[in-house]
């Protein structure tokens, strides 16, 4: 299985949007969580911000942030996704590249400290993970020096911070690797290859640790919230395709695993609702790094003068 076949779900027009489930946390859809955050920090949309969104996909969450953007940069590695989002947001600058390459190109183009809002929703685990492992015809392969991989991954996170303008925010959503849904996904993928650090939460840990490092050196303040909720599948078949099409990427080894097939069916049985539909238990980590002078910014008014 090659990298291109692994990404096929993202490359065929309309496939990802068709398979994507709605996610609700405390009764609020993930898009509305972003909209609520924007309202809290920027009041009504006023098209005044310089915004970049990495892993933008077809622009599902971009709909919430675009009204706040004076200048909007949208990046995704998928040509199909970029073509769709360029049609939807014709005034935006688009970049077709992996997130790490997109960050590097923006820094090279003198965009350091110029974005009021740097965002990535559900997607940051992938560029962080790619420092540690790669896909080849032999399957998932760990990269040679894991210590070097971690060093590069942490630098990547700090480069994201480096794009953020003074007073701006780096805002990210990551899946909760400890939720029952993701534990099943982790169990399946570890039959293909083990994850660095013993599980898929390692990407979040690296992100949080690097942002703590940035906070400790005075680059800003970190707020990290975990919310529980569900991924809502209207039918059993849509729940099954969520696992095998999106999570498992139709990987041949996983498709041919009869024990995994039984595990998925039992999981769906457990969370199928009496009135129909399947409420898959899910979780999201909402991570906000505010690029303000720290710790001075934390003092009450008047004490810092």
From TrEMBL:
<feature type="domain" description="Methyltransferase type 12">
    <location>
        <begin position="52"/>
        <end position="126"/>
    </location>
</feature>
<dbReference type="InterPro" id="IPR029063">
    <property type="entry name" value="SAM-dependent_MTases_sf"/>
</dbReference>
<keyword id="KW-0489">Methyltransferase</keyword>
<dbReference type="InterPro" id="IPR013217">
    <property type="entry name" value="Methyltransf_12"/>
</dbReference>
<protein>
    <submittedName>
        <fullName>Methyltransferase family protein</fullName>
    </submittedName>
</protein>
<dbReference type="GO" id="GO:0008168">
    <property type="term" value="F:methyltransferase activity"/>
</dbReference>
<dbReference type="GO" id="GO:0032259">
    <property type="term" value="P:methylation"/>
</dbReference>
<dbReference type="Pfam" id="PF08242">
    <property type="entry name" value="Methyltransf_12"/>
</dbReference>
<keyword id="KW-0808">Transferase</keyword>
């Amino acid at each position: 299985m090659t990298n291109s076949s692994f990404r096929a779900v993202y490359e065929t027009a309309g496939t990802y949007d068709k398979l994507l489930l709605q996610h609700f946390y405390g009764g609020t859809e993930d898009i509305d969580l972003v909209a609520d955050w924007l309202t809290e920090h920027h009041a009504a949309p006023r098209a005044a911000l310089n915004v970049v969104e990495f892993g933008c996909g077809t622009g599902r969450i971009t709909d919430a942030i675009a009204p706040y953007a004076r200048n909007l940069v949208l990046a995704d590695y998928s040509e199909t996704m970029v073509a769709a989002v360029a049609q939807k947001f014709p005034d935006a600058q688009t970049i077709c590249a992996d997130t790490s390459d997109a960050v590097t190109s923006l820094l090279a183009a003198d965009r350091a400290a110029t974005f009021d809002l740097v965002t990535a929703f559900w997607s940051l685990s992938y560029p962080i993970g790619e420092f540690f492992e790669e896909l080849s015809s032999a399957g998932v392969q760990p990269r040679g020096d894991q210590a070097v991989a971690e060093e590069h991954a942490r630098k990547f996170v700090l480069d994201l911070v480096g794009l953020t303008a003074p007073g701006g925010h780096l805002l990210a959503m990551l899946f909760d690797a400890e939720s029952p849904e993701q534990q099943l996904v982790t169990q399946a993928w570890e039959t293909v290859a083990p994850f660095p650090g013993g599980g898929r939460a390692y990407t979040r840990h690296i992100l949080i640790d690097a942002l703590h490092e940035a906070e400790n050196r005075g680059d800003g303040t970190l707020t990290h919230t975990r919310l529980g909720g569900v991924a809502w599948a209207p039918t059993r078949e849509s729940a099954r395709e969520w696992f095998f099409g999106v999570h498992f990427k139709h990987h041949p080894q996983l498709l041919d695993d009869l024990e995994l097939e039984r595990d998925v069916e039992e999981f769906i049985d457990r969370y199928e609702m009496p009135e129909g539909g399947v409420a898959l238990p899910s979780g999201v980590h909402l991570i906000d790094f505010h690029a303000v002078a720290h710790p001075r910014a934390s003092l009450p008014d008047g004490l810092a003068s």
